[in-house]
Amino acid sequence: MPGIFTILKQDSMKNVAVIAGGDSGEYQISINSARIVAGHIDTQKYRVFLIEIKGGDWVYSSDEQSEIQVDKNDFSLLVGGEKIRFDVVFNVIHGTPGEDGKILGYFEMLGIPFTSSSAIASALTFNKAYCNQVVRSMGVAVAQSVHLFKNQAYNVDDVLGKVQLPCFVKPNQGGSSVGMSKVKEAGELQPALAKAFEEDSEVLIEEFIEGRELTIGVLFRQDELLTFPITEVISKNEFFDYEAKYNSSLNQEVTPAQIPVSLKEEIQRQAQLIYRSLNLKGVVRIDFIHSMKGLYFLEVNTVPGMSTESIVPKQIREMGYQINDLFQWMLDESLSV
Which of 156, 228, 267, 302 suits a disulfide with 315, CB 3.0-4.6 Å? Predict the structure, then answer.
């Protein structure tokens, strides 16, 4: 039987649900990130429960019981006869339903705080075409693009009249470059569209901008909007595709990026503008490309990778902090609301 001190200590600790998995091609990446998160949250302050979500199965694996299903009526667990209610959710689901806002609306209805942006902000940023339109309205440069829907007819010639070759064809709502193709010739466009439509009912065709890919982490902490050191991503493949992202031999990430101070300050300014204007929350990663024409916005990642070799943790270490510091900041911000 646990002692009185143990019971009092547990009563004063916050319960954290680390949610991982999801229903996209990034399932395993999310699981890997979540294990890092769960292993680096301060267990003197928090009781951590890693919950894997896939479709209708929301499961916590316990030492005492092999698998415990989450009660979706109130997002709780029954562990060893104890009803576990959560003080905060640490969202590590890349793709749907964590990054597109679906499950976040559920937590908002239940009044449970979470570490990522709101349901509506997440839904907007996850939809690349809609997000591009909003960001463009801020005066930020965005590549020319065409937005297609699977159930609507389209004409390849019309598409090529609006977006010049080469171009990128990608699922409009997705991550890790899953289903993405670089199209150089007109005959390659239809197969690329078919590939992208296998992943999503919406596809974005975007002009290719040659330049340096630069990405920056942003976090609101203690009334200050922090920008992290900028990383330059250099792919050995033709572009930074899924294979290059998760095979270190096929990419190089330079942190801090070797760029002029003026460009660094412009990236920081635009990243802060986007973060504030979209009313983002928690740590996000914002991607840009710098070309001869100037700086262009690429996309917002509201649930960036959190493995030790992911970009944002590398940026944090460059600042002189550790990954557990980042997770503590995220929890502090969520619980202070």
Answer: 228
CATH number of this structure's domain 123-141+210-335: 3.30.470.20
Considering only the top CATH level, what class is 145-207?
Answer: alpha beta
* Domain positions in the chain: 4-114, 123-141+210-335, 145-207
Longest dimension (CA), the chain: 74
User: For 126-164, what is each residue's pLDDT tens digit?
Assistant: 999 999 999 999 999 999 999 999 888 888 888 888 988
User: What architecture does CATH give domain 4-114?
Assistant: 3-Layer(aba) Sandwich (3.40)
d(CA 50, CA 70): 11
**What six digits make up the tokens of 300?**
């917002």
